[in-house]
Design brief:
The chain is mainly beta. 3% of the residues lie in helices and 34% in strands. The protein has a six-stranded mixed beta sheet, with no helix packed on it. It has a four-stranded mixed beta sheet with strand order 1-3-4-6, with no helix packed on it. It has a three-stranded antiparallel beta sheet with strand order 13-18-15. Strand 11 and strand 12 form a beta hairpin. The N and C termini lie close together (6 Å).
Amino acid sequence: MPRNGQTQVLGIVSIVPMGEWEPTITYQKLNYVRHGGANYLAKGSSINVEPGEAENWEDLWMLTIYDGSNVTPYGTYPYMTVGTLLASELSEGSLNDYLVVDYSGKSFYAAAGNIVADKPDGVDAFSMTVSMAGDGTAMQVLWETDNNNLFVRDSAQTQWVQFARVDGAYPNMTVGTALSQIKVPFTIASSQWTDDLTAILSSEQYPLLSNLQSGSFATVIFDEDSAIPVIQSNVAISSQAVGNITFSCTDKPAEALSGTIIIS
């Protein structure tokens, strides 16, 4: 794949953990905070708009986890059940059991005091997602919720590696350089989702996907208008193959989703 070393500013393209909500911090879209027994995802920029309490807070925050302490839920959340995220709770067992592609696209979390084994050293409470890398291996990304540290590993290299820490540094990676200039704008119509909650994009529809080979890695950036339905339906890349890519969801989105696939 061609790489020309150019630096690109992509903006905020994924969830950014920010720890406990603070009234003096200016939050941006996709910032993720903890407050009053619940977790919230920012829909836009705000300062001193207390999630769950301020007037019209729902215009700027989306409740994602409610665990029942110090928060009274209200309103209608058709895509979630109070007490659960678009994720499964773990309290024991081993994270090695989830380091397989069968769990690709799934999310998990564990509260403080859990006895889950094979976490990064020193980690207690956490949230974790599982995906499939371009070479077919399973990959886990784990967020330590107490200290805002991020760790990653895959089924080929099972040792956890810390790649971001609370001060915003990236101790084990180089930042600022785009790994590829191959960008594939796409749209997934609501009718493209199958009964098994998948949608496949192929090089027949998008010729640039022919650049997706066995050694390639694909990431996706959804457009701003698609951000909320993507989160509500838990849309993610679940697998990739030569010339095509498969998205999965937990509920069929009612509207078309658009974005850009980046191939490296």
